[in-house]
Amino acid sequence: MVKGKIVIRKINCSKSRQVTFFKRRTGLFKKAKELSILCDAEIGLIIFSCTGKVYDFASTSMKSILERYGKVKQEVNNLPCMSALEMQSLRSETASLKLEISRLQESQRHLMGQELKEMRLEELNDLEAKLDTGLKNVRAQKDQIFKEEATELKEKTDRIEQENIELRRKLSEIMIQNNTKLKGEQFCVSLEIRV
């Protein structure tokens, strides 16, 4: 069975009001206790009934909670208050920033090709010009990066080519020295055989 929604309004019958007060007060204290245990929160609850009785709940000590609340309240009251003019200025600035954000988000959607049906021909032409300019800038940057990479690659290739030339020269010198040395050894061996 589904419970119906209860309309929250003052209960006219005083006896029903007392019963409801007792049940709801008990439930409220139970929830406050659970909240203090689950969340390690310091909770103080004071209820004045319509008969003038006072009911309270404190997760620690009501005195310490009230002192702490008094200190925080005093600190808040000591904060410098903004004048109405400053508040209005901040509200105005906030509103203009919200409008600017909204305008930029709409512009971004248009640049992404979204929500174009709402635009007039003049706005579409302007958008197309912006996209063309952006595309040209992207291509120019891409070309610049390609040129830099090509120059770097050519320099690297030239450096490797120079190293190869140097290695070939050294190899050639080593081979000439080895041939000369071998011929000298063969000459010595042939002299020994004749003797």
From TrEMBL:
<keyword id="KW-0539">Nucleus</keyword>
<keyword id="KW-0804">Transcription</keyword>
<dbReference type="Pfam" id="PF00319">
    <property type="entry name" value="SRF-TF"/>
</dbReference>
<dbReference type="GO" id="GO:0046983">
    <property type="term" value="F:protein dimerization activity"/>
</dbReference>
<dbReference type="GO" id="GO:0003700">
    <property type="term" value="F:DNA-binding transcription factor activity"/>
</dbReference>
<keyword id="KW-0805">Transcription regulation</keyword>
<dbReference type="GO" id="GO:0000977">
    <property type="term" value="F:RNA polymerase II transcription regulatory region sequence-specific DNA binding"/>
</dbReference>
<dbReference type="InterPro" id="IPR036879">
    <property type="entry name" value="TF_MADSbox_sf"/>
</dbReference>
<dbReference type="InterPro" id="IPR002487">
    <property type="entry name" value="TF_Kbox"/>
</dbReference>
<dbReference type="Pfam" id="PF01486">
    <property type="entry name" value="K-box"/>
</dbReference>
<feature type="domain" description="MADS-box">
    <location>
        <begin position="1"/>
        <end position="61"/>
    </location>
</feature>
<dbReference type="InterPro" id="IPR002100">
    <property type="entry name" value="TF_MADSbox"/>
</dbReference>
<dbReference type="GO" id="GO:0005634">
    <property type="term" value="C:nucleus"/>
</dbReference>
<feature type="domain" description="K-box">
    <location>
        <begin position="87"/>
        <end position="177"/>
    </location>
</feature>
<dbReference type="InterPro" id="IPR033896">
    <property type="entry name" value="MEF2-like_N"/>
</dbReference>
<keyword id="KW-0175">Coiled coil</keyword>
<dbReference type="GO" id="GO:0045944">
    <property type="term" value="P:positive regulation of transcription by RNA polymerase II"/>
</dbReference>
<feature type="coiled-coil region">
    <location>
        <begin position="87"/>
        <end position="177"/>
    </location>
</feature>
<protein>
    <submittedName>
        <fullName>MADS-box transcription factor 23-like isoform X4</fullName>
    </submittedName>
</protein>
<dbReference type="InterPro" id="IPR050142">
    <property type="entry name" value="MADS-box/MEF2_TF"/>
</dbReference>
<keyword id="KW-0238">DNA-binding</keyword>
